[in-house]
Amino acid sequence: xxxxxxxxxxxxxxxxxxxxxxxxxxxxxxxxxxxxxxxxxxxxxxxxxxxxxxxxxxxxxxxxxxxxxxxxxxxxxxxxxxxxxxxxxxxxxxxxxxxxxxxxxxxxxxxxxxxxxxxxxxxxxxxxxxxxxxxxxxxxxxxxxxxxxxxxxxxxxxxxxxxxxxxxxxxxxxxxxxxxxxxxxxxxxxxxxxxxxxxxxxxxxxxxxxxxxxxxxxxxxxxxxxxxxxxxxxxxxxxxxxxxxxxxxxxxxxxxxxxxxxxxxxxxxxxxxxxxxxxxxxxxxxxxxxxxxxxxxxxxxxxxxxxxxxxxxxxxxxxxxxxxxxxxxxxxxxxxxxxxxxxxxxxxxxxxxxxxxxxxxxxxxxxxxxxxxxxxxxxxxxxxxxxxxxxxxxxxxxxxxxxxxxxxxxxxxxxxxxxxxxxxxxxxxxxxxxxxxxxxxxxxxxxxxxxxxxxxxxxxxxxxxxxxxxxxxx
Length: 474
What we know:
Largest sheet: 9 strands, mixed
Number of helices: 17
Structural class: alpha/beta
Number of domains: 3
């Protein structure tokens, strides 16, 4: 009789690389408009998944519904997006009345699974903001729901699509440094961007999974994609040592704080601004305060994180995330049997950039900007002179990644994908499972194996399936 492990392994293969259900590709090629519904109309949902899509793909998609638990935020988002579709505070009513082809999920991280599973149970394709979900139990529920459904889940891993990170993938895949052995990956969040997570709901582990999951899912997905293998074991250290209860003082929020003149982290929401209209004016509906004190006692996520990840193919990655750095950026080094790649991004003194750290983050989140520039990386081949490779990139939209992932989905679903940029449920799972394993490792003071968490079994080489498109509901 077939063993349980063998059986589960085959099930994992069936859902491993699927990006979308088979008939969206045909629908888009026929130039039929995709009926789209959005749940979660906060700043990310109403901009990246909302206004940006309305502006960029008017011939490809039609918003048929918006949903949010906050009716005030919902009304403002509808106006700001420039759509005329109905709005709902009840998700079940929305999908029942609008019958969308695709659900876009941009709610708080801990609720992603609820909407993903409901969509799959109703045979609707889903595109979710990262992370796919926040713990192993919710991850397992999504895996099982997709196995039973005719539809698929897309995880919006936009960093993969950025030209700079794509160039690294090309160099590794073409064997420029031989077989990959190890990676050193250090991500720095500055005192503006890093602090913002602790002001928001992200500072509560039960809502975000902590930055191990919410933020690092981007980084772990890049690692998984570059290594082309599944993570096998994680050993991590982490603590809360700067924000939360560590602060010298605290207030109710930045607007009313008596310490604003001496707090270096004070952040003001300008009256009449987008954030004011979206959040401040709608606090009374659900109690969500956008400019919360980042020294409030309830914060319980780590602000210091370091992990070692062992892959099934024996590559080892050393990872760290700093949340209160003077500058924001990343340093990555790839060690191979025949050479080494050194890459960095956003390091101001290396790039000779004078832009402020606050403006840098705003620029990164902008959509549709074709402001081209060049970023270097260094290729070292053993016993040869090093080579500096300048990669043409774009400012805004996660280095050009946002535009590319959306074009693939909504314009060119049948276009070639030689580097396997497209990410489905297994990719979403393997990235968050590293972060979840890291949290568990800190809690249990021991290494944690990925197979302890769900029934997915790590594979030595990632499994890729043909990318196809969502199906139009009749």
